[in-house]
Amino acid sequence: MKYLFILFLCLITVPSMAQKSLNLDDALELAMANSPDMLDAKLRLERSQQSLIAQKAALKSQFSLRLTPFEYNRDREYNTFFSTWNTAESKASSSIFTISQPLVWTDGTVSLVNSFGWRDSYSEYQDKQDKSFSNNLALRYTQPIFTYNRIKLSMRELLLDLENSEMFYTLQKLNIETRVAQDFYTVYAQTLSHQIALEELTNQEQSYQIMKNKVDAGLAALEELYQAELNLASSRQKVQNSTVTLSNAKDELKRSLGISIFEEIDVVADVSYQVVEIDLQKALDTGLSARTELRQREIDIASAKNSLIQTAALNEFRGDLEMRYGIIGTDEDFESVYEKPTYNQRFSISFDIPLFDWGESRARKKASEASVEMSELNLEDEKTTIVIGIRQAFRSIKNLEIQIEIARQSVKNAQLTYDINLEKYKNGDLTSMDLNLYQIQLSEQKIALTQALIDYRLALLNLKVQSMWDFVRNEPVLPEIEDINNSAK
What is the pLDDT of residues 68-125, one digit of tens each? Predict the structure, then answer.
């Protein structure tokens, strides 16, 4: 018998051990690690980081070496000057070593190029064969003029893209914190509703037993027992409905956390109530100075202005300057290549002059200017949206503080009312239907208080997101954002 009892304890303990209990911090940690939205934001941030790293690397000196170990060519061509056919054959090896340095401040490029080669060629025309080494060393400078600096603009766009990705990462984190908190407290509220439904079922079972005893003793009419049975069936139905609702809420929470929906979880929440002092002016000031959405609108304006610069350069008047100075030597002996060098110089300046484009450039420029104005309007509208959101969040918190006090008193009064009428019911001075109304009233008030406490927590979180200031801890959210940006860089 003792072993059967131990086995029974093991069987009822195993499921509880398999169930994972989560508090809000645990849930947020899981969501940050597993949420598809966070993974997407991290990949977006990594893409922007690597693009900027690549651009910075491209602005450093670039070294390249091209080798042609062996090249063979045999061809027969017609020489129109001498009116004869000629067969030429050549063997060659060559290499080109290049050092190229982009100049950020001018958008030009300085290059040092060294070409070394060996050639063995034969021409049928004069029955002549030539073997020689050659080396060509040249310094080259190219510079676009009368146009915008494309290197600087590209770097500016990549920096803005990285900053935008960092802010997107931060916003995703805050959005996930809000969504997980809502799903978490929904599970908590449904758990309490389920518990309240079980309490109501217990009370109805007690009421039913009291009425059954009275009917059996001939102290109450049979219809009172029928009413008690109806009330009991209604309570059982509430328990079943709350069980289904709770299971559905848990599945939604699991999806937000990025864990298996088949994993058993339970939530442990602290909804103890303590009034948090809110400074509306401080919330407005920090919101208007720290909200990443405002900086995103400013980035939109900067990007629109960059696009305007690029559009203005369409069919533009521009020039290209090229200067080259080199020295080339050839000889049959490698050691004598530069005994009689030849100095090569080149200077050229060219211009692209648009003549007529049927108004294309003007129209595209006006379209880009309209985009800039739209971005500026969006910035002003975003400021108004932020102010309205903070003011609404503040009013919601103050309203909930009043609602919580009312709900607390209502629960207290409903409990006292139910206890008094339960005694009346026991004494036969109250019907089962009337007692059921008081039971429903008590359950509703308990649920209302729980929901008000949860709404207060969510309202504080909403104000944190709106103002970028955590009034619960009395600290800014901005340092958290700066830490993310620094770690990203």
Answer: 999 888 888 887 777 788 888 889 999 999 999 999 898 899 999 999 999 888 887 7
- Span 130-145, pLDDT tens digits: 888 999 999 999 999 9
Q: Is residue 396 included in any domain, yes or no?
A: yes
Answer yes or no: do 74 and 181 share one domain. Answer: no
Tell me which residue range forms the domain holding 139. Answer: 63-103+106-147+317-353
Same domain? For 167 and 272 the reply is yes
> Can you give the chain as a three-state secondary structure string?
CHHHHHHHHHHHHHHHHHCEEECHHHHHHHHHHHCHHHHHHHHHHHHHHHHHHHHHHHCCCEEEEEEEEEEEEEEEEEECCCCEEEEEEEEEEEEEEEEEEEECCCCEEEEEEEEEEEEEEEECCCCEEEEEEEEEEEEEEEEEECCCCHHHHHHHHHHHHHHHHHHHHHHHHHHHHHHHHHHHHHHHHHHHHHHHHHHHHHHHHHHHHHHHHHHHCCCCCHHHHHHHHHHHHHHHHHHHHHHHHHHHHHHHHHHHHCCCCCCCEEECCCCCCCCCCCCHHHHHHHHHHHCHHHHHHHHHHHHHHHHHHHHHCCCCCEEEEEEEEEEEEEECCHHHCCCCCEEEEEEEEEEECCCCCCCHHHHHHHHHHHHHHHHHHHHHHHHHHHHHHHHHHHHHHHHHHHHHHHHHHHHHHHHHHHHHHHHHHHCCCCCHHHHHHHHHHHHHHHHHHHHHHHHHHHHHHHHHHHHCEECCCCEECHHHHHHHHHHHC
The answer on 377 and 294 residing in a single domain is yes
**The pTM of the whole model exceeds 0.70:** no
Count structural domains, the chain. 2
% of residues, the chain, pLDDT over 90:
20
- Domain at 164, CATH number: 1.20.1600.10
Considering the domain architecture, whether residues 32 and 125 belong to the same structural domain is answered as no
Residue 374 inside a domain? The answer is yes
Last residue of a domain, one of 353, 370, 403: 353
